[in-house]
Amino acid sequence: MPEILVAGETLVDFLPGEGATLRDVEGFSHRPGGAPANVAVGLARLGVVPAFWTRLGGDPFGDFLAETLGSELIPTTQIERVDGNTTLAVVSLPETDDRRFRFYGAGDVTFGFDPDAVPTDALASASWVHLGGVALTHPRGREAMVELATRAADHGCTVSFDVNYRPDLVAEGATDDVLAALREVVEASDVVFCSEEEVAETGLSSRWGAGLARDLCALGPHTAVVTLGADGALAASTADAPWGEATVRHEGFAVESRDTTGAGDAFTAGLIARLAAGSGSDADGPSDEESNERGASDGAALDDALAFANATAALSVRDIGGMSALPTREAVAAFLDDDDA
Prior knowledge:
Strand order of the largest sheet: 5-4-1-8-9-10-11-12-13
Strand content: 15-25%
Number of strands: 13
Largest sheet: 9 strands, mixed
Radius of gyration: 19 Å
Structural class: alpha/beta
Distance between the termini: 29 Å
Number of helices: 12
Helix content: 25-40%
CATH class: Alpha Beta
């Protein structure tokens, strides 16, 4: 079983009830969220319980999040409780074209990771480290995440990074610093996740699709994964990748969607679980013998992982809430079996 460390924010998503606009909504329901937190819980439900470096406020919402992570069997070793209030993310109504999230709170509690608290001890046993880009918008979080990525690479860990660029969280005058840190983490990473839209705002690439993925690989990662929403995802890898040089595309699965919040995080958890464990490590995918027959460098493992990740994301949109809708490994396996039937 791979040892995985996830790092980044845990916060509360406020989901609106009925109304034409957020101003007209009469009530909200609160759900646990935060992209890295969703990935950590997604991995746990897929049978790969990670360590999780995160910060929780000392307020009742922090208690709620601590209880939620505990119920998912996430170890408490790297979970910090700090004074202050939890950041809230108000989710826009599905039918609006407004930005997806509006963040409320100073951000110091949720995003202000201490660079001196980087869990170096956890890196000694970790084979894979995943971190998210939102913490880069905070000065201390920026320094901490760059330090974590660099140390993880030095320890020989596979480093994956979700770009997740949120310009609305960047303080005035700090854009250049945030984008420089983002590029530094990309260069230190082995696997990078992104959407086309968010990268267009970073200057990392001006291309789309496979061209974007190849541009990211040219910066240092051996694998770049581009999520395409309802159109699935694509990935490109170089000869340095354990799964060999390849460009693969999976169109995704047609399902009835109730809430797309956290679908990208579900996808990320699915891909990491599959690649970190090895595509031929269980009965849900091709065996080692089958993979060898197809060749170690023909992208079979990456193609299989992309299908598994898209299935994980597809199941996650069939219920309300990013974290609460994350599927189990058994549910994903059954879904894929039904699709093959």
